[in-house]
Every structure is written in C-alpha cells, then in structure tokens.
Write a structure and sequence with these properties.
Chain lengths: 483, 236
C-alpha cells in the first residue's frame, strides 16, 4: 500500500508457508481444496471465450463482406453465429460463473470442498458435451432454437453434468461451518438452483420433446430472459457484493436495501423475456406481463446500485484507484445501469414497434452480457486468481490495456448497435424503403461492430498474456501445479 | 505488497476479519454497534416502487385481454370482456400504392411522377391518369393490366415507348397504386376500389399483346364512381 507503483512480486513461498493466523491457514486449506476444479473450469472457459470471440469476429466480417469464406458449409453465418453464442454462454458464462460460485460458497461458508474428483469429472463431461455439441451444430445438426442450438443428446449431457457439479456445492452449503448466509450467497444459490430448472424446462419442451408450435416462441423467450436474470445477473451481483466489502473493508451500506434488491429481482425475473414477443401471435397477457416486468426490473437495479454507490463513497479513494478488480467492477455496474435502461425503453410497446428485430436488442443483450457480467467477472478473476495460484499479476500495463480495450470495444459496439438499430427500425417501418436499402444503411454500423470485436479480442489477448506469464512463474518456482 | 492483487486490502491486513463476520446480521446484538448497517430503504425508492406497482397494476388490467388464452390483441377486446367494438383499421390504399409505386413504377415515371421528357410520359396532371377527355377509369385499369405500346399523346406531347403489363399484381395493389397516383403530386382524381379493378379484370379477355392507343380509344369510356364528374386538373 505504501508503494503503489512498484510491481514487486509477493514471494510465493512465503505467502504460502508463513505461520499464518488460524483463520488464514483455514482459508488456505479451502483454497487448496478448490484450486484443481476451479482452475480447470477457468482454463476451459478462457479457451471457449477466445474461440467464441474468434468465431464471432468472423461472423462480423461476413456481415460486412458477405463473400468472405463463402461456400464452406460449416463456416456459413447460420452455423458459426449460433456456435459462437453457445460458446459464449455454455463455454464461458456458465463454467466461469460456476467456478465463482464454487469459490465464493466455500470461502463464505468456511468449509473446504470435498468430492473434488466427481466434480472435476463432471466438468470434463461438460466440456466434452460442449465440444461434441458445437461440432454437431457446425455440421448442420443444430436445433435452430436460439441459445438452445445443441442437439438433444448434447444438451442432455450438459444438463446431467451441471447437476453433478452443482450437487457438491449444495452439499457444501448444507455442511457449512459458518451458518450465517451472506448476501452474495443468496444470489449465488439462486443462480445455482435456477439453471437446472430453466435449462431443463426449456430443453424438455423444445429439444428433448417438442411442445406444440404456438407455445415454442414464448418458451424460448422465457428461457433467454431467465438466463439473463437468473444466471448472469445473480452471479455478477453476488461477486460485486463480495468484492467491494472485501477489498475496501466497508460494510454493506444497508441490509434492508440488499434484501429489497434481492427479492424484487426474484419477483420480476423470468417474465421479462416475453416482452420480445410484443405484437406476436401469443396471448395478450404474456406481452403485458413482459412489458410490466421489464420496466419493474429497474427497482432491483436501483436498490443494488445505491448500495454499491454508498459503499464506494465510504471507502478510501486510494484503494479505488489502485485496485484493478474494483475498476472492472465499476465498469460492470455502469453497464448494468445502462443496459437496464435500454431494455426498459425497448419494452414500451410504442418503441418496441420500431426497435424489435433490430440490432438495438442485440446491443442491449451484449452490453448486459459482456459489459455487466463479463467486466464484473473479469474483476473477480483479477482478485481470485492470485489467491488460487499464489502468484501475483506480472504487469499493471497489461491489466490497463485489457481494461481500456474492453471498455472502448464494448462501448463502441453497443453504441453503434443501438444507433444503427434505431435507424434500421425507423427504415423498417417506412413502406417506401426497400429491404436492400435498409441493409445498406446498417453497413457502416456493422463495420464499427466488427472493429470493436477485434478490440475485445485484443483486450482478451492481454489477459491471456498475463496468465501465460503466471504459468511460467509457476513452473519456475516449482509450485504444486494445479491439474 | 502488490497493489495489483488487492493484497493491500482488508483481506491481507486483517486476515482474521471475514466478510460474514463484518456483515453478520446483528440478530441478538445491540443494533447500535452496527451503525448504518440497518439503514432503512430510502423513502424516494419506496415512493418510486409504489408508483411503479400502481402503474403495473393498471397496465396489466387494461392490456391483458382479461387474461384469456385466446385474446391476442388486447386493444380489440375491452378488458371487461364485453367489448370487441373496435374493428381492425381498414387498409389505406394510398400506403399500399406508395409501396407498389416505389417498387415498380419509379424507374420510368420517376419519384416525382414527372417521367422523363421525350421518353416516359408524366403522371402529374396527365389526362390518362385523371381519366379526362376520352379516357376512362376502365382504360386506366386495362393499361396497368396488359401494358401499353406504340405512339401515344400525353398532355399534347408525343411519346413512343412500351409499358410492361402488371397483371401479376393483386386487385388491391392495382387499386392502391392508381389511387396513389391520382392523389399524389397535386393530382386530385377520385380513388379506385379493388372491386372495380376486379370487375375490369374479369370483363377483359386475357391478351398477350400490349394495348395501343387506338385500341383503347375504341373502347367506350367508363368511370368507377358512376357519376361522370370530370376531375379538375391540378392548379399548377
């Protein structure tokens, strides 16, 4: 703390072998029990993330130059795009989110994790299902249901392996030595228990068995909305509720506000996806429920943001400036606010008539997914990884590059998608403008989106470079290698 | 200490302090000790919630179609269940026509309806489009259906070109485009109905050749509205 600019490494050996107070040694025991499955989950999620970024960049280039990689069936837009999105969700967001659940639940319940082998085996099963499922989609066996493209056997394997992984966290929660449930744990347990429910239900009705046609649309929209509000949001919020007090040493500003934010989120989540079917052939009450809940979702947002804001206010400013984790978290919170407002605007029927089926909605989703969930989780990773490996980050420059490339990339992408989407929507509603003309209006915006995907890819390379350095140091120091 | 790892934080300085400890709800402890921890929810947030909940109730009541599974558009059914008084809005022929015109006609007749001097005749103030003189509404529809070729006179100017047949368009599209042309750019002709187009289409024997002016002139003039009030040419 006294010398903020020196990047001296912590001596890993002393960090691990110092006679630590009882609590800290217990903490170390917990970390050791977790490091194998968590580092495995993180490694595979980083691999999926870089692959997904690469594939989506190809898709983005294809939108600008339609003849790019033309004529290769498994590299066509209709197969690459779903694979990229599925890798983002099932390859990155879910394993990484699960790794954070694992770490935070073990830490907060002061209990080491048992049954590591079954958990790691289940994680391997998850990865195999993901790999085979993605190959099947590339080969043309996708189901063409958005976010549920994997063929039924692959999604069934994913479902089973998630159950096998999640079970041990539930057991750990039951055996916990610290009986009090901290705010983060409310959110993380919500995410953990919701995913099998939403994923199982959606697959049961859409891929394992087919429900009658008219009900398929609402179920897919319900799933997409639930994935955002029952997985992405709770995990990001749980991480933030852990990181801010932990790093700044400030207590939660208001316990009641945290309760209000949590239960209002539970009340309104799950319905919100239906608003993307406004004007469709579904019962009117589904649309009105979607509109209402999408607008009511500002309440949990306001509640948690006030809480975070006051915690930042009460903490030392120096910590805020130095901590890379908090910097990423702050970007995540700002993205959360903007994304909630954008989705609120697009769910008013009068605006929805213009904005539906345009890039505006994709931009909102990407801001939520990469800006809120992604930035928050990267903040968490900058905090957790040195504690798991015992090695500190090697370069503050690279962290800054990662941060700024991500911030610029995401803001450029989202603003061009939102603006381009508005223009697209107005043009769609003008009967005189032909479809090919509308495509030419969106072209400059697509160029900007392509550029921003490359910026994100570059930012992620900085992060990967940091990890590679860390790995080298582990080999040099002959530290116990997590496998 | 390395600031990048956040080790300068409470975690490193006070390893014994844990989150659950500092945030433990003071169930049996003196609340004074916890200061602001149990701060109430701000009043303005409660006020906003109340307003939003009230609005949500109203919205759900008015736009849910009585929560029936077979109501797809709440605006067509009053929420009390009795309504259904408002029918779907009638189709505006001019909107249909504008689209048809933009897709098919602008290439020759231009967006301004003025055509190209010496090549494509104008529609603005044209006695053909407004059914003046020997021209009737029936000629106009036949024209669209099977095209036109050879020398013609429009607004005292000679033209010699060919117009393609458009009989693949529906009655509604033809009625729409004629209504649009007769009411745009200062034209003030009467609208043409899809029924009239259907009648002319049925009474005209199918042909492969486009009409010539003399062929059309031989067919007696017929007006859609029945009333033979000649539309006045535009003021300009």
């Amino acid at each position: 703390m006294n010398n903020a600019t020196t990047l001296s490494k912590i001596e890993p050996a002393s960090y691990l072998s110092e006679p630590l107070p009882l609590d800290a040694s217990k903490r170390l025991e917990i970390d050791r029990s977790l490091s194998v499955p968590i580092l495995f989950l993180m490694r595979s999620s980083f691999f999926s993330f870089s692959l997904a970024l690469f594939l989506i960049s190809i898709c983005a280039v294809k939108l600008v130059f339609p003849s790019f990689l033309d004529g290769i069936s498994f590299l066509t837009y209709g197969r690459l795009f779903p694979v990229a999105y599925d890798l983002f969700i099932y390859g990155w967001a879910i394993p990484l989110g699960f790794a954070l659940i694992l770490w935070l639940m073990a830490r907060l319940s002061a209990t080491p994790l048992s049954h590591i082998r079954i958990l790691t085996a289940a994680a391997h099963l998850w990865n195999s299902a993901l790999f085979l499922g993605s190959l099947a989609v590339l080969a043309g066996y996708g189901t063409s249901v958005i976010f549920l493209e994997y063929p039924n056997w692959a999604s069934f394997l994913l479902f089973v392996s998630f159950l096998l992984m999640g079970l041990w966290v539930l057991l750990l929660t039951q055996e916990r030595k610290e009986r009090a449930l901290y705010v983060s744990e409310w959110y993380l347990l919500t995410a953990l228990c919701s995913f099998p429910w939403i994923y199982g239900t959606a697959n049961l009705m859409l891929t394992w068995g087919k429900i009658q046609g008219s009900a398929q649309g609402p179920i897919q929209c319900w799933y997409a909305g639930s994935l955002m509000q029952f997985w992405l949001t709770p995990i990001a919020l749980g991480t933030i509720y852990y990181l801010i007090p932990k790093i700044t040493g400030v207590k939660i500003y208001s316990y009641y506000l945290a309760l209000f934010g949590f239960f209002s989120l539970l009340l309104f989540s799950g319905w919100n996806g239906l608003s993307s079917l406004i004007g469709g052939a579904i019962p009117a009450w589904m649309m009105s429920a979607g509109v209402v809940t999408n607008i009511m979702l500002v309440l949990p947002m306001i509640a948690v943001v006030i809480n975070f804001y006051w915690m930042f206010q009460e903490s030392e400013k120096l910590i805020l400036h130095q901590s890379p984790a908090l910097r990423f978290v702050a970007a995540g919170i700002i993205s959360y606010v903007i994304a909630t407002v954008l989705s609120l605007v697009s769910s008013f029927p009068c605006f929805n008539a213009i904005l539906n089926f345009t890039d505006y909605l994709s931009g909102t989703f990407l801001l939520f997914f990469l800006g809120f969930f992604g930035m928050t989780l990267f903040g968490g990773l900058y905090y957790f990884i040195p504690r798991l490996t015992g090695i500190s980050w090697s370069s503050s420059k690279l962290i800054q590059f990662h941060f700024w490339l991500s911030v610029v990339g995401i803001s450029l992408m989202v603003s061009s998608m939102v603006l381009g989407g508005m223009i697209e929507g107005v043009a769609f509603n003008d009967p005189v403008i032909t479809f090919t003309n509308i495509l030419s209006y969106t072209l400059p915006w697509n160029v900007l989106v392509t550029l921003s995907w490359f910026l994100l890819l570059l930012g992620f390379f900085c992060f990967m470079r940091l990890l590679v350095t860390m790995r080298w140091e582990m080999i040099e120091e002959k530290l116990p290698m997590p496998r | 200490m390395n600031p990048l790892n956040d080790l300068n934080s409470s975690d490193a300085l006070n390893p014994e302090r844990d989150l659950v400890e500092i945030n433990r709800p003071p169930l049996s402890v003196n609340p004074e000790k916890y200061g602001g921890f149990f701060r109430p929810i701000p009043l303005w947030l409660i006020a906003i919630s109340m307003v939003l909940f009230f609005w949500a109730g109203l919205y759900l009541a008015y736009y849910s179609g009585g929560f029936k599974s077979n109501v797809y558009n709440a605006e067509l059914v009053a929420w009390s269940g009795g309504g259904g008084s408002r029918a779907a809005a009638p189709i505006d022929l001019r909107v249909v026509g504008k689209k048809v015109f933009a897709q098919n006609c602008v290439v020759c007749h231009q967006e301004t309806g003025l055509g190209i001097a010496g090549q494509y005749p104008p529609l603005v103030g044209s006695e053909w489009a407004l059914s003046q003189g020997w021209h009737g509404d029936n000629h106009l529809v036949k024209n669209i259906l099977y095209g036109l070729q050879g020398p013609i006179i429009v607004k005292n100017m000679p033209y010699n070109n060919a117009m393609a047949p458009w009989n693949q368009l529906t009655d509604q599209q033809i009625a729409g485009v004629l209504t649009y042309v007769r009411s745009e750019w200062g034209n003030n002709g009467s609208p043409i109905s899809p029924e009239f187009v259907a009648k002319i289409r049925a009474s005209t024997p199918p042909r492969t050749e486009a009409w010539t002016m003399s062929e059309l002139q031989a067919i007696p003039r017929e007006l859609y509205s029945g009333a033979a009030t000649n539309p006045t040419p535009p003021a300009k």
